[in-house]
Amino acid sequence: MRAMTDGRQQPQQPPGPEQGGEQQPVPKPGQPTLPFRAATPPPGYGYPQPQPQQPGYGYPQPQQPAQPGYPQTPRTGYGYPPEAHPGTPEQGRSAPAWTPPATPLADVGPTHPGEPDWSALAERAEAGDRRRKVLLYGGGALAAVVIGAVVATAVIVTGHKRPAPGPTLARPTTPAQPTPSFSDVTPPPPPNPLTIISSAKKDTAPLTPDGLFAGARLDFKGRAYTRTATDATDTCYTLTSGGLGDVLAHNGCRELLRATYTRDGVAVTVGVAVFDSGAAADRAKNDYQGYVQPLAGGGTPAFCHATACQTTANAVGRYAYFTIAGLTDGHPVTADDPQTKGAAADVAAFAFNRIVQRGRDQAATAPAG
After folding, report:
1. Where are the transmembrane segments (predicted)?
2. CA distance 276 to 252
């Protein structure tokens, strides 16, 4: 129970720290009233044991139970700040800059009933942010799926129709090139030269000694011969001996053409008998006997008279050709004489080639078929 005074309130000393307790810091005027925790030094030599902490500045001091029958007087004496509206600086003084406490606010929990739990509020706010992000991402994905479904449905409903392309500039076109056309009819093969020279009806080109034995010189396989004389007759048997005339006449000889070639003392006369068909020429070759009379002249003396000589016979187409070869000095030719035998073969091959070339020349100008 308090003693009565003369009505004037005496300043009271602020309660000092309890024995062994810690001096509470005196707050500066205008400093924000934020909760903080006082650091308690660890117990050691020369220090008293820690006592329960007193509420810091800015928190209500624990009140003594009210004494019945006496009004409570506000404590405004020394050591307590005057009453003021929260957050409003005192009249005539500027609020100093706020200095953060040594201990982070997140670590400070509520110290008095009714004070909000700042850590819990921060955690709830962070959880709310996470939920909003999840909802935002999920909503975006769902919107993309819905848009894709709408587009697919629209494509199906419209029958997969795509917008028609816009007009394009016409490119210059080149005129169509004509394509060759081919007949389905196979053209007939060209005439066969042998077929032409085998028939008097087809073999109609002019025939003369100079045309058949063309050129004054004969070159065959590197061997050169000189043509010295030529002649022709339509009475074939008059230019033959030893029964050849009868063979030619029997098979229908139409003409006999002769030519003489000389080389190194050897003279060769070739006679070509002309028939109406290839069959007649083949028969004359097969029935061959006798020989063609040798043709002298043009510097070639008479040869193969009353002496042995080399003779041959062959046929191609409607032509039969015969050769007689001997020495120009009148000596007889032996059976194995290579010089006269070779000369007779060369001149006979030349006659064959000239007859075939006659057929080729006519086939080149004859109509097909």
Report:
1. 134-157
2. 7
Residue 251 φ/ψ region, left for φ over 0, alpha for ψ in the -120 to 50 degree band, beta for the rest: alpha
* pLDDT greater at residue 128 or residue 328: 328
**Model confidence at 190, in pLDDT bands (50, 70, 90)?**
confident
Q: Phi first, then psi: what are they for 244, rounded to 5°?
A: -70, -30
* Sign of the CA dihedral with 235 first, then 237, 267, and 336 last: positive
Statement: residue 21 has pLDDT above 80:
no
Q: Which amino acid is it at 48?
A: P
Phi/psi of residue 132, nearest 5 degrees: -65, -40
196 neighbors 366 (Cβ within 8 angstroms): yes
Residue bearing tokens 């073969």: 345
Other Cβ atoms within 10 Å of 156 Cβ, number = 9
The pLDDT of 147-158, averaged and rounded, is 63
3-class secondary structure, 229: strand
**Cα–Cα distance for residue pair 21/105, rounded to 1 Å:** 25
For 84, the token pair is 């003021």
267-311 confidence digits (pLDDT tens) = 999 999 999 999 999 999 999 999 999 999 999 999 999 999 999
Give the domain ranges of the chain.
193-365
| Mean pLDDT of the 160-187 span | 65
Interatomic CA distance for residues 192 and 196, integer angstroms: 7
Give Cα separations from 81 to 50, 57, 342 (angstroms): 27, 10, 158
Q: Which long-range contacts (CB under 8 A, 24 or more apart) does 335-343 make?
A: 337/310, 339/264, 339/266, 340/266, 340/309, 340/310, 341/310, 342/223, 343/225, 343/261, 343/263, 343/266, 343/268, 343/310
Q: Which residues pair with 255 in a beta bridge?
A: 274
Distance CA 236, CA 233 (A): 6
SS3 label, residue 122? helix
